[in-house]
Amino acid sequence: MTFPKGYTFTKVKTSHGPKIYVAQFGKLVRVVPCSPQVEVSERYANDLIRQIESD
Fold first, then answer.
1. How far apart are CA 13 and CA 54, in angstroms?
2. Is 55 helix (H, G, I), strand (E, B) or coil?
3. Which end of the chain is more exposed for a tag (fewer CB within 10 A), N or C?
4. pTM score
């Protein structure tokens, strides 16, 4: 799923549980642990983008 400012969110099942990989213009920015029920909605993505950019 691609969002404004070049952010891409990919939900991945790992051996340590599900995670969301956040990339910007193809470069990995952050790995976020999540629950299996989490869906990457536009609101969730925008909140995460705001949090990443404020760090």
1. 27
2. coil
3. C
4. 0.83
